[in-house]
């Protein structure tokens, strides 16, 4: 949506800011033009609750923008919401690989390009408010919505969230979510997460701070409770940390429908907008104001922030209105393919004969067996609020068939080890596609949510509203609740391993054909100990979006280097992870998870953070590190492609504070500081600059951050714990 062309109070405010008038002056003038009723209208969605619910549950989620706070009399466009993050949920948009796959590229410039494409598609379809910058830290890989975030480390989360924000905000307001400590799916409406200040500021809030500093327009609160108070009405998180410590000037919004429990309390605590419909605030806030449970100063504070965010956005718009045909255009499909290929992570690539199995040689492939129930399924991720309804999805089978027009390709979809082995035995190469679907992981709204008296009490009474009666009738239909998740269970994963039958198929295929590649479709870590020894090659392909099948062929055939790197660690056993109860009502989050926990406890990972093989090889040498300037430091290292073909490498900068004992000092022995990517021809070298942050080398105290140690060893590495890292030392 562009600024209205006819003169309105809102367009006058935008024009004044563009002409140099201070933003706050223009906003105050605009606010003074609103009536009290209009100011209340700004504070929630515009659609009547039951109408919105009935439409969402029967016709589909977010097919068009959800409007919040549009005031036509003054030309205020409102916040026109579209969800994400794997693309625009509205219409038939480009499905990019899920965020975790994009995090595996370790390429923030590429992510910014994705953000630009998403912003264009969103704006072309009438929205201006993108709720898709998801950066929650997956404390445990079972988290069902791990696919919506970028990795296990705050630096990765912060830099990728900032990059997506930069790209989107060329055309729309970006919203970061879910603030905070939201990394359990099944229990998200009831769990109270306890975390001390050190864990909060060093780990679970650090990436939100980075994205706020980037200038994100909105922050969406979480469903869960934090230290005894629901996140949507948590004054310490919103007013104390977000605004008081970090200086956030944008708008705060609730998560949908169940994101707050008390209209007045949420307003007093600093929540500006209840999303997405007219619900608790429309029902209760007027009476709350009369009773003194909230004040008109609270209303004006929120209204001013809501208007300020919109005026600032429209005043800064320089991009022309995109045409509708930008949606799912060839350029965006090509970008989706590029991202999918760049993010695929090669975990294993052993020789078969005299050379590594991958990349496959087209000229030597006359037949291919493609095995697995997922090989010809349009499997782009879960069926929840992040689902993108792309017009076309290229499956693994389609992509390989297209890339190998002269080859005989046999597909075995059944869970039948004998049939799979028979097909593999008659082929030059076998590719087994195994992993997960929306039935195994993803957003979850179970039947107990829509029958929970406490949650149902947050709904306004349906009365004789036909839409309310329609919704009640919908819930009474057999199987209706199950259909909300697209007929799939989703939620937190029950297992970190492939199905037993998948392991049986893999071993049977490998026994029949030593030239076997296993392709894993997943978002989070998969433990592979029971079958990995049987196969020479393992590739993580993720939920890879509209063009995933073509991207898979690009990587397997070597048209693109295997360049992805793990955005998390993979343990060798479940016992090496933090405890996880997906039905918990209370849990404590400390600093220990992922690679940090493995390091502390002395458990060797199956694959460490940042690991990934290439089709060539690289060496790192001659690291120099500047002394930190404020929160920033910079490393420069020589990267040499020591192999026989061109390739792409990810240089990772880690810091080891000196004299730290992880258990005794409650501080990690190694932390990620920054990263950079480089493309090099065979035999070439380059000096690569790696921008980094000194913040992970600091610990939180009651008076703020202080260095964890006087000095730190800095490593330019290919993965966490790389014995061949180039090292230097800095004073903190």
TrEMBL record:
Task: Identify the residues that the record assigns to the Fibronectin type III-like domain, covering every copy.
Answer: 649-720
- Annotated source species: Microbispora bryophytorum subsp. camponoti
Record-stated family: Belongs to the glycosyl hydrolase 3 family.
Q: Name one Pfam family in it.
A: Glyco_hydro_3_C
Matching InterPro entries, A to Z? Answer: Cellulose_deg_GH3, Fn3-like, GH, Glyco_hydro_3_C, Glyco_hydro_3_C_sf, Glyco_hydro_3_N, Glyco_hydro_3_N_sf, Ig-like_fold
> What keywords tag this UniProt record?
Hydrolase
Molecular functions (GO terms): hydrolase activity
Q: What is this protein called?
A: Glycoside hydrolase family 3 C-terminal domain-containing protein
